[in-house]
Amino acid sequence: MPNDIDLASEDLQVLHVIHDADHAVTTTTVREQMHWADDSAQIRYRLDKLEDRGLVETWHDDERAEPHQMPPRVAETTDAGDAIADDHDDDRETLPVEERMARIEQQLDRMRDTYGTVKQRIVELEEEVEDHDEDLDDLAEDIRALRRYVE
């Protein structure tokens, strides 16, 4: 079927990622599957285009929000989006092995970066917990000293 809805191939790729998921997906999840997306802004742009055409619905999911952070934007396909994705399933090209490998390597690089960031954050949080443990031990000792003084 020709692309008579005038969507760029990137728009269709984003639509397919959302359509293929069995739940609402975050912009980060979509970005991680797009070899051409350097940041979430590119995905937000595509989501806005798809939402303007009634192909996806987006919202901020409070249940997935981390403390002190804005809830992530999530997306699901509408019935119209599902129909377009189904109609364009045959349009998905079979990429040459070299390009598929390049995409996999890019995804792996992004995963390594994410792993490094998460690992560093875990180390930082462990250090903060140790600092708080020491503070709590000091506070407990002060409370015991006050009890001895009062008694």
TrEMBL record:
For this UniProt record, the keywords arranged alphabetically read as follows: Coiled coil
Q: Map out region (Disordered) in residue numbers.
A: 60-93
Please name the InterPro entries in this protein's record: WH-like_DNA-bd_sf, WH_DNA-bd_sf
Note the superkingdom of the native organism: Archaea
The residues forming a coiled coil are: 101-149
Q: What is this protein called?
A: Uncharacterized protein
The source organism is Halorussus limi
